[in-house]
Amino acid sequence: MAAMLSVNEVAALADAPRSVVEKALEQRIFSATRSGTRAERMLPIRSVALAATFRSLGRRLTIADKLQMSRHVETVRLDAMRECRIEIAPALTVDVGALASDAVDRALRYAEARDAYIERVDGVMGGRPVLKGTRITASSVLGRIEAGDTIDDLLDDYPDVPREAFEAAYLYAATHPSVGRPARERGAA
What we know:
This protein is α+β, with helices and mostly antiparallel strands and 189 residues long. Helices cover 49% and strands 13% of the residues. It has a 3-stranded antiparallel β-sheet with strand order 1-3-2. A two-stranded antiparallel sheet has the order 4-5. A two-stranded antiparallel ribbon has the order 6-7.
């Protein structure tokens, strides 16, 4: 089965605002399935191609145009996305490959790394997502990078963990924020 991505992952990988993905869901351009205990909406990787294309076009497409593009993209193999061109009207052809193939490649690499390196295990770090075989949480990777560390710094600290694992953990944590109350600042009453 092809990898599925959350709404936030699709938006981040397409370099598009979340509102573009939400609007496509609302208009039934994208179809989502529910997954996991929180019933998170999951979308196919092809959604990244469409979201990147919608963002890149810089013009408003009609719902009919978007649906036509969606139906066409569903028939294209992901490895052939670079060659995908869709005729919207006699004088308008959209080169999805030129607009979105890099985003699709990024999404495929991310989904493979996410599935290979990130897991949730009851009893390990409270069931929070960790890098497989470690106690390194995805959120700690995000925190370190946001604090100024680089992936290379993390590789120096954990030489047995592959770069792809840290890159996947960073994007995963950024697109799956922790649920709950924010921590109180020290010294706050």
